[in-house]
Amino acid sequence: MPFNIPILLTWLRIVLIPLLIGIYYVPEPWASLQERNLIATLVFVVAGLTDWFDGYLARALNQTSAFGAFLDPVADKLMVATALIMLVQLDRTNAVIAAVIIGREITISALREWMAQIGASKSVAVSMIGKIKTTAQMAAIPLLLLQEPVAGIDVMAAGTWLIYIAAVLTLWSMGYYMRMAWPQIVQHAKK
User: Fold this and answer.
1) How far apart, in whole angstroms, are the C-alpha atoms of residue 38 and residue 117?
2) How many CB atoms lie within 10 A of CB 174?
3) What is the block-wise mean pLDDT of the chain (191 residues), using blocks of 10 residues?
4) Are 144 and 74 within 8 A, CB to CB?
5) Residue 161: how many CB atoms within 10 A of its CB?
6) pTM here?
7) How far apart are CA 58 and CA 128, in angstroms?
8) Residue 111 half-sphere exposure toward CB, CA atoms < 13 A
9) Residue 106 burial class via C-beta count within 10 angstroms: exposed 0-12, middle 13-18, buried 19 and up
């Protein structure tokens, strides 16, 4: 397993997952709900920044690796799934929305793995719709974690709208990837 700064940042993202969960189990006298929300939001934002930096540094320092390419999306999906489950538990988002987003991530990850095994990974390369979905999702989650209005802006309402948009884009992007992979699926199903 290679070890470099980009991979260290990816591992940091994974290490932040228990912290994100643990914040909500801190006793009330130690931290109010508002303080826990703020800390959880900051943890999620830091995780998001490490995602950007690890990719940037891997390219800039020429430290890309197969292991890093594998670990990076795993860390992303674990962080997002954990945050969504916490938001459902905190009653800040709907379980159906979380299931749609998490289910899509599992489905597309499995599809990409299978497509790579048959040598057709370019068929399911990241698309613009996938990037827009990720942007909506990564903007919604911190707003839903924060919960409290900021400068008169109802961040819960904004986060709710964004998570619903992310869910719609999730289904749309899944349909897109499945449509792109369908010829290969049909071809290999006959074998």
Assistant:
1) 42
2) 20
3) 85 94 91 94 94 88 85 91 96 97 91 80 74 92 94 94 96 88 78 62
4) no
5) 13
6) 0.89
7) 22
8) 24
9) exposed
